[in-house]
Design goal:
There is one protein chain. By secondary structure, this protein is mainly beta. It has three helices and 13 strands; from the N terminus they run βαβββββββββββααβ. Strands 3, 4, 5, 6, 9, 10, 11 and 12 form an eight-stranded mixed beta sheet that branches. The longest helix has 10 residues. It is globular, with a radius of gyration of 17 Å.
C-alpha cells in the first residue's frame, strides 16, 4: 500500500455505515471532511475503544515504539503476517486496535517501458460505500496531542487482479467485522483471525487511473479521484 488515501464524507456518514445504533456519536453531523489526498504524518480521524466506550480522535499517521524513535521515519503500515508476533508493534497488539474510515486509497504503477514514470490509480469499493481500514493506534486522552500518539494501517497481500496495481493493500473490513475489531472484549485469537482471514475480497473493489496531480500533497479536491484517461499507461 502506498502512502495516500482519502477521507471525505462526514463523520456521521461513517458512523451510520459502521453502526446506526451508536448513540454516542449522535452529535456528529454530516459536514464533509473533504480530504482527498491524505499523506503520512498528517492527523486523521480514527475510531478506537477505551474503557468508557468508542472515541473519535485526530491521530498522526505513523507510529514507532519509543526505542525506535528517530532511527528512521515512523512506519505508516504494519504487515498482517507479523503484526501479532513481531517485536515492533508489541506495544499496540492487540489492545491498540483502531479503525480508519475512508472511501479509498491510491497506488502508483510503474510504466513497464520507463520505470521512472508512474501512473496513480484510485481504488474503492464497487458499491462506493465507505470502507474501514483495520489499524493499530496509540492515543492518549487530553486536549493537546501526545508525542507518542500515532497509528498504522494494517496491510495484507493483494490477490488476483489487484496484484497488477500493487502487491500490498490495506486490511479493509466490513462494518460487521470492523465493529468486532473495535470490541475491547474480543479475544486476541479472534482479532488475529479477522486480520489474517477477513479482509474484503478483491472482487469487491474497482480501480482506475487518476491524474498525476495527486502526487503533490498540496493538491486536494474531488477531481483527484476522477478517471483520467489521458494518463493511462
Amino acid at each position: 500500500m502506498c502512502g495516500r488515501f482519502v477521507q471525505y464524507e462526514g463523520m456521521a456518514i461513517y458512523i451510520e455505515e459502521l453502526n446506526p445504533q451508536i448513540e454516542l456519536f449522535s452529535g456528529y453531523d454530516a459536514e464533509p471532511i473533504n480530504r482527498f489526498n491524505i499523506a503520512p504524518t498528517t492527523r486523521v480521524q480514527v475510531l478506537h475503544s477505551k474503557e468508557d466506550g468508542l472515541h473519535i480522535d485526530a491521530v498522526r499517521w505513523g507510529w514507532a515504539p519509543f526505542w525506535a524513535k528517530g532511527k528512521r521515519p515512523d512506519p505508516i503500515n504494519a504487515r498482517v503476517e507479523t503484526v501479532a508476533t513481531g517485536k515492533f508493534f508489541k506495544q499496540l497488539w492487540p489492545n491498540g486496535r483502531a479503525i480508519v474510515p475512508s472511501e479509498g486509497w491510491y497506488e502508483w504503477v510503474k510504466d513497464p517501458d520507463d520505470p521512472k514514470k508512474k501512473q496513480p490509480y484510485f481504488i474503492r469499493l464497487k458499491s462506493r460505500r465507505p470502507m474501514f481500514f483495520g489499524a493499530l493506534a496509540e492515543v492518549h486522552s487530553g486536549l493537546e496531542p501526545h508525542e507518542g500518539d500515532g497509528f498504522v494501517i494494517i496491510t495484507a497481500a493483494s490477490d488476483q487482479g489487484m496484484v497488477d496495481i500493487h502487491d500490498r493493500r490495506p486490511l479493509v473490513l466490513t462494518p460487521e467485522h470492523a465493529n468486532e475489531w473495535l470490541d475491547p472484549d474480543i479475544a486476541p485469537t479472534r482479532a488475529e483471525e479477522i486480520a489474517r482471514e477477513l479482509c474484503q475480497p478483491t472482487e469487491e473493489f474497482e480501480w482506475f487511473p487518476v491524474s498525476k496531480t495527486v502526487g503533490n500533497v498540496r493538491n486536494q479536491g474531488p477531481k483527484l479521484i476522477e478517471l483520467d484517461r489521458s494518463d493511462i499507461i
